[in-house]
Amino acid sequence: MQCYKVTKSLTNIGNPNQQFPICCIKQLDTRPCQPPLILHLLLKPINKNNKIMRLDIQVQPTRPNMAAPPVSEVIIIEEIQVDDENDGKGVIALVCINRPNKLNALNDDVMSGLKAMCNWAENQNQIKLVIIKGAEPLQPEEGKRAKPNAFVAGADISEFAGKKSNDIRQSFKHNAWEKIWNLSKPTIAMVDGFALGGGLEVACSCDIRMASSRSKFGTPEITLGLIPGGGGTQRLGHLIGYGKTLELVLSGEMISANEALRIGLVNHVYEPEELLEATLKLARIIASKSPHTLKVAKKVVRASLELPISEGVVLEAEEFAQLFDTEDKEIGVEAFLNGTRTTPNWKGK
Questions:
Q1: Who contacts 133 (Cβ-Cβ below 8 Å, separation ≥6)?
Q2: 187-222 burial string, b = 16+ CB within 10 Å, else e?
Q3: How far is the CA of 2 from the CAs of 31, 113, 150, in angstroms?
């Protein structure tokens, strides 16, 4: 599997003068071939009186040293350059949970897709950081009310019917929440709308949480006779403390984005139209740093959740010392001493 982008429109059979706006083809199963590749698209017209047309386009591979992201209808991955002017600085993976008709609720397909995404992102050196978001609601049919925005509005409850404890135990082995949590690369949850139950647990599995002002957070599992099962009782406690965690878990009530900011559940709150830009700005700042040092920093800070402080400071000192043997330390120090204003060309080692 390779990633391709459209570089030139060659022919439009049926009506050579008609133009079709084609921005980007994300994924193509090209099988063994030598680029450039001629791709044939069948264009089905909206007007039934028009003919189906074929458009031939020439495509070229992008980032040939990076594997294509996993293909899924429910997990859409967009690759965004860290530096718009320098493709060599790597990319940010913008991951969209795409079930807008179900408020992006988690089901088996979404969980499998998230795990596949994590495996892919972990093994691509060009991926510097991962952002996870929910799909925006679809335009409603005429006469129907629009669905609200959602990051992930929880689990798909329809999949709970008939399941017993052994079914749940099997599904929780190597689950998506732990895959996200264990990514060595930085992760950001971009929350716009409801982040409830398993959706809040996805957000808590990320390192940083950015939210829109219309977002709502909660753990409503108690209303189903259940408790959070994807790390919510544990990670929430580390983020907002014992008392607030129990209040959310036992009441099942939702809190606003501003309250989530006040208690430390989210890092920043923006208006919905500003959220993506603000998230990408922070992501680019982080992703511009040495990828090796980012992994070490995340590892050491994460250790503070599990180790006594007396052991944590020993680990920190050792990791700090080991960084003095890396190429990136030499590159960073040299850039600082020379007053270099551009991002150093990190080696990642």
A1: 94, 95, 96, 97, 151, 189, 190, 191, 192
A2: bbbbbbbbbbbbbbbbbbbbbbbbbbebbbbbbbbb
A3: 9, 18, 31
Closest CA to 30 of 42, 38, 19, 22: 38
- Torsion from C-alpha of 279, 281, 287, 289, nearest 10 degrees: -140
Which residue range forms the structural domain that includes residue 236? 75-139+146-287
Sequence length of the chain is 349
Residue 63 has φ and ψ, to the nearest 5°, of 45, 65
On whether both 235 and 126 belong to a single domain, the answer is: yes
Compute the distance between CA of residue 14 and CA of residue 54 in angstroms, rounded to an integer: 7
Strands 208-212, 254-256: pairing is unpaired
Total structural domains in the chain?
A: 2
Query: What amino acid positions are annotated as catalytic residues?
Result: 201, 221
Residue with tokens 């680019």: 284
Retrieve residue 198's tokens: 């398993």
pLDDT at 297 over 90: yes
- pTM here is 0.82
- Please, what's the largest Cα pairwise distance for the chain? 76
At 327, is the secondary structure helix, strand, or coil? helix
Q: Are 246 and 236 in contact (CB under 8 A)?
A: no
Question: 113, 74 in Cβ contact below 8 A?
Answer: yes
* 222 and 294 fall within a common domain: no
User: pLDDT tens digits for 239-271?
Assistant: 999 999 999 999 999 999 999 999 999 999 999
Please give the structure tokens belonging to residue 171.
């599904």
Query: Does 328 lie in the same domain as 244?
Result: no
Would you report the helix, strand and coil content of the chain in percent, each value rounded to 5? 35, 25, 40
